[in-house]
Amino acid sequence: MNFVEEPKQRVLDEELERRAVEFHGHGGPFMTVGLRMGLYALERLDCKGWFDVSCMVALRWRPPDSCVIDGIQSSTGCTMGKHNIEAVEGDGISATFTSGGGSVTLTLRKEVIDKVRSGLEDEEATRETMGWLGGAAAKELFEVRG
């Protein structure tokens, strides 16, 4: 078996976004949220990705909210096939990442969810929101526990 040697990148850049769009089929703000969640979790837990991290996501289990899952898969290497990501129906959007003996729970702030949802019908507003999501500090986006 071949295994990836290098750790997952921890920066949101054009290449990661391109790979995520290729995986998911299109870009969007909820996928960007998932990318940011995964990248922040890898950093907080100081893990390599792919095999040394797992994730439990709670959200509305339908698009566009469920697009968060593909962002997390793209940024962390957690996949349904390896059974190290699981999704359950829930209110809001949160993800608990576990690695080794540590864990971190990231909950998307309600005002961020509202902002993302309010711009979904307008292409320009969606692009602006995605830019903001990509550059905002994690504390602006998430409530963090752990």
3D structure, described in words:
Strands 2-1-3-4-5 form a five-stranded mixed sheet. With about 150 residues, it is of the alpha+beta class. Helix 3 links the parallel strand 1 and strand 2. The chain has one domain: 2-Layer Sandwich (60s Ribosomal Protein L30, Chain: A), CATH 3.30.1330. It has six helices and five strands, in the order ααβαβββαααβ. Helix content is about 45%, strand content about 20%. The model has no long low-confidence stretch (mean pLDDT about 95).
| pLDDT < 50 runs, ≥5 residues | none
Amount of beta strand: 15-25%
Q: What is the CA-CA span between the terminal residues?
A: 34 Å
Structural class: alpha+beta
CATH topology: 60s Ribosomal Protein L30, Chain: A
Q: Please, what is the average pLDDT?
A: 96
The helix fraction, in percent, is: 40-55%
What is the strand tally? 5
CATH class: Alpha Beta
Shape: globular
Strand order of the largest sheet: 2-1-3-4-5
CATH architecture: 2-Layer Sandwich
Instruction: From the alpha carbons, calculate the radius of gyration and give it in angstroms.
Output: 14 Å
SSE string, helices as H and strands as E: HHEHEEEHHHE
What profile does the largest beta sheet have? 5 strands, mixed
Number of domains: 1
The number of helical runs is 6
